[in-house]
Structures are given as C-alpha cells and as structure tokens.
Specification:
This protein is mainly alpha-helical. It is 51% helix and 10% strand. A 3-stranded antiparallel sheet has the order 1-7-6. A two-stranded antiparallel ribbon has the order 2-5. The chain has a two-stranded antiparallel sheet with strand order 3-4. It is globular, with a radius of gyration of 22 Å.
C-alpha cells in the first residue's frame, strides 16, 4: 500500500509546480484504489498514473459503475434472484469475469509451480484452501477475490473523497487532524506509515467514522431470516411476524441520519465518536460495515487504506475550496454511487 501511496503523492506534486492546483479528486483516488487492490488482492503491480488505460483499471470501472441493463439485473438479483437463475442471466459481463478468473487462477498456478510466497489475499486464500476441510475449488477462490474487488474498488475511493470534502469544508477539523498527523510523522522519523502506528491516529478514526455516518456509502444491508420471529415494539405491541427465509433490508442512511439517534445529523461533527461520546451511540444505529458474523470482510482494510491516504494528503497539502467545488454536494448526486454530477473538486495547497 505504501508503494501505491508514494506514487499517488508523487503524481499530486507534479500537478502543483507553483505550490497549488485544483482538480477533480474522484478519478485521481479511484486510480489509487485500483492499484492497491491489484497489489494486495490479485498480486500484480499496476501503476494507473503512468498507464491510465491499463486493462485492470478499465475492466474495474466497467464492472463497478452500474448503468442500464446491469443495474436492472442487479436490482432483480436483490428482489427476486430466481428470475435471473430461470433466465440463465448473469449480472456481470462474461468477458469481464473471465478476465478476473484467468488472473487469479494463473497467479495461483504460477506460485504453486515456482514456490512463490507473496503476502496478499491470493496467498491467504491458498493457505486457507490447504488447511480447510471444505476442499475449496479454484472457482470459489476466484469468487472471493472478485467480491473483494467489487466491494472495495468504488467504496474505498468514495470514503477518501468524502472525507477530503469534509476536511475542506471544515477547516478547524482539518487543522486538528493535521496537528495529530504531525505528531505521528515525528514518531515515524521519516519512515513510512505502518499499521500499528496508524492505529494511534484517534482523531483520524473520529473523522472517518463521522464521514461514514453522514455519507452512508452502503444504502442498505440485508439478512435472511433463519427462524420465525415476532417483532414487538418497546411497549411489547406486535409489529411484524417474520418467517424463515424472509429477506430483511435495513436502510443504513435512514438510521444514521435520524435525529433521534444523532443530533443535528446534517452537521459534520467528529466529536460524536470521541471516547467520551461514542458510548452514547445507541447500538445498531451506526452500521457502515454491517454487524454480526456477516459484517463486511473488508472493514479494517478499507479503514487502513483511507486512514493512510488521508495522513499523506494532510501532511503534504492543505485542502481548500475550489471555484468548481459543488456548493450542495448531496443535492448534486444521482443514482446509487456517491458520484456528484459536478465532481469532487478540491484545491490543494502545498504545505512545504
């Protein structure tokens, strides 16, 4: 990851020969997210800043940006998946999924043949396959890598862009975060950020949690009912009768922007997640990664990536509003992706 961060910051600095620049951040950070996934999950080195049209990036873009028939099939798969099965239809284009299949299987075969060990997701899955009594197939391992890519590619970039937008809009928050990052930089003594040190960034955690609360990147999470259950309210009045097999959707944005759980929900306030206040948050009202044994498998991965990138950004640059910055970014969004029509325009001013 640090190698990818280094390339990203290097590219950013080339854009500001006079000490500042402004550009649309989503495209820039999506390339970073792409390169990190390529390295950590698929074991390949990709530099999307030097080669902006590399196949891994282009295939990823086409898979994660739902349009037209693909969006329609995705909605059917959530509401009535049997329809797709009956019609023999797939959500994703076969050519794109075949690309990932070849990528993973070829990597596994090459490593096993040449006794190569690389500390990434493919390696973890290969080791799990050897130790598991379930006899995982190659197809199942490919599926794990694919869903990891599908979940992380867009969402990780969205988290970094949204947090940067909030830091730009709240200079006092940005200044406090910068001071915390300076302390960590001194502790590192010019060494790259590592996982243990990153976990010391407590205010960074607060900023990211508040971003996750306010922006609700996953619109809902769902579960399948495993046993019959009668739901009652706080006064023990009957509300609903769930049956085995029922699929239940939980609207995350509705919970996290509800005034009865979060006072002034439209206000960006990291203090909600301070040590003194986070105990007051009602359980299961803040669910950015779901909850329970089926919560998001990429929870720590996403937070680690966002935390590190924001650390390098804030240390090197001051984030300011650009003339092209959208005034009301939430009203500017369309569809399911966090993708405002006017983009994430930010002005970056070098701190050196």
């Amino acid at each position: 990851m640090n190698e990818c961060f280094s390339e990203c910051i290097k590219k950013l600095k080339t854009k500001m020969p006079n000490g500042s620049c402004e550009f649309e951040m989503k495209q820039f950070i999506t390339r970073l997210s792409n390169d990190i996934i390529a390295s950590t999950a698929f074991g390949i080195n990709v530099n999307s800043y030097q080669d902006p049209n590399n196949k891994f990036y282009n295939v990823g873009q086409s898979i994660t940006r739902f349009r037209g028939s693909q969006m329609f099939k995705f909605m059917i798969s959530n509401v009535a998946p049997w329809i797709l099965t009956y019609l023999g239809m797939k959500i994703f284009d076969k050519e794109k999924t075949d690309y990932f299949t070849r990528l993973v299987i070829d990597a596994m075969k090459y490593r096993e043949k040449n006794n190569i060990v690389r500390h990434d997701m493919i390696q973890l899955l290969l080791e799990a396959k050897k130790d598991s009594a379930q006899h995982w197939s190659d197809e199942e391992i490919v599926a794990q890598c694919f869903i990891f890519f599908f979940a992380a590619f867009e969402n990780n970039a969205n988290l970094i862009c949204a947090a940067s937008h909030e830091l730009m809009s709240n200079p006092d928050v940005q200044q406090r975060l910068y001071e915390e990052c300076l302390e960590i930089k001194e502790e590192l003594q010019d060494q790259p950020l590592n996982y243990d040190i990153a976990n010391k960034l407590k205010y960074m955690d607060m900023v990211l949690n508040e971003t996750l609360r306010k922006w609700s990147f996953a619109s809902f999470t769902d579960r399948v009912c495993s046993k019959d259950y009668k739901l009652t309210d706080e006064d023990d009045n009957f509300v609903f009768d769930f049956k085995v097999g029922d699929r239940v959707w939980f609207p995350l944005g509705g919970l996290q922007m509800d005034e009865q759980y979060f006072e002034n929900p439209d206000v960006f306030d990291p203090e909600r997640f301070s040590d003194d206040n986070k105990g007051n948050i009602k359980p299961f009202t803040f669910l950015p990664f779901g909850a329970g044994p089926r919560n998001c498998i990429g929870n720590r991965y996403a937070l680690m990536q966002a935390k590190a990138m924001l650390y390098y950004l804030v240390i090197n640059c001051k984030l300011e509003r650009s003339e092209k910055t959208v005034k009301d970014i939430f009203n500017d969004m369309r569809g399911f992706n966090v993708n405002p029509q006017g983009g994430f325009w930010i002005r970056f001013v070098s701190r050196k």
